[in-house]
Design brief:
A 7-stranded mixed sheet has the order 4-3-2-5-6-10-9, sandwiched between helices. Strands 1-8-7 form a 3-stranded mixed sheet, with helices on one face. It starts with 15 loop residues before the first strand and ends with a strand. By secondary structure, it is an alpha/beta fold. The chain has helices spanning 20-27, 37-54, 73-78, 93-109, 154-164, 178-181, 206-215, 234-237, and strands spanning 16-17, 63-67, 85-90, 118-123, 140-146, 165-176, 188-189, 196-198, 218-228, 248-257. It is built from 8 helices and 10 strands.
């Protein structure tokens, strides 16, 4: 359940707000092709900064849960970590179907010694109190959750991470920056109907995120890092990033469960 931002500004049609699962199921067929710059920036930060920080801290045969894996954008990065066990969780079956297809295809192309040991997916909604964390995701060494918490109340999100992680487990978290959230939110234009669709979103501040994490027994081990869009980013991020030059659009951090 990843996000894309600033994608709902077609003149003349007000956005239609839908429950998050319904919106992402509808979004799944075009999610990876709608030119979203925040996803692109997040992938750069995860690949170049966050995973290099996380990887040396993982134990052998680490179980990593990609919480809100969406179409597998971050899961694909995790596949290149040798001998880890990856579990992708998402509440959208449409998004997860895309993730399963693209990740299994990629896994087949990687040499055995340079790829994850196992890959599995399960459907789970953090907001559904009637269903506990899937067994395959429990007692994890690390949770990676990229551009997800915008759609989840902070107490629900950190409660879920706490139930998934073993003691001293690591949490790598990224999200839309609240400065961007004040002007934009996740959403897309349906290519068939032309309707602008937005799921439920929250503009969590960096401070509130850190404070809520502390209430659930998490301590910050890196960050929070805040990132703006720079002129030299535009070639990599695309034209939709231009209006955000000089503005903070992303934040990330790594935490440890006490």
């Amino acid at each position: 359940m990843e996000i894309a931002a600033d994608a709902c500004k077609v003149v003349g049609k007000p956005p239609i707000y839908k429950p998050t699962v319904e919106a992402y199921d509808q979004w799944a067929p075009v999610y990876d092709t709608d030119g979203n710059f925040l996803q692109a920036l997040d992938s750069i930060m995860v690949r170049q900064m966050l995973l290099p920080l996380l990887t040396p801290l993982l134990p052998p045969r680490a179980r990593i849960v990609d919480l809100g894996c969406g179409t597998g954008r971050t899961t694909l990065e995790l596949l290149h970590l040798p001998d880890v066990r990856i579990v992708g969780l998402d509440n959208s079956r449409g998004m997860q179907a895309v993730a399963m297809a693209r990740c299994n295809q990629t896994l087949e192309t990687l040499a055995q010694e340079a790829r994850a040991a196992t890959l599995s997916f399960d459907t789970w909604d953090m907001l559904d109190e009637a269903h506990d964390v899937p067994e395959v995701a429990k007692n994890a060494d690390a949770v990676v959750s990229t551009l997800v918490v915008e759609h989840i109340p902070l107490d629900v999100f950190f409660g879920a991470c706490s139930r998934i992680l073993k003691r001293a487990g690591l949490l790598l978290l990224t999200n839309m920056h609240p400065d961007m959230g004040a002007e934009s939110q996740a959403g897309f234009t349906d290519p068939v109907s032309g309707e602008k669709v937005r799921p439920v979103s929250y503009a969590h501040t960096v401070e509130a995120t850190v404070e809520e994490a502390k209430r659930w027994g998490f301590e910050t081990v890196w960050g929070p890092e805040e990132r703006d869009v720079r002129e030299d980013d535009l070639e990599k991020l695309g034209g939709r990033a231009k209006k955000w030059v000089g503005k903070k659009v992303w934040f990330g951090m790594m935490m440890k469960k006490a």
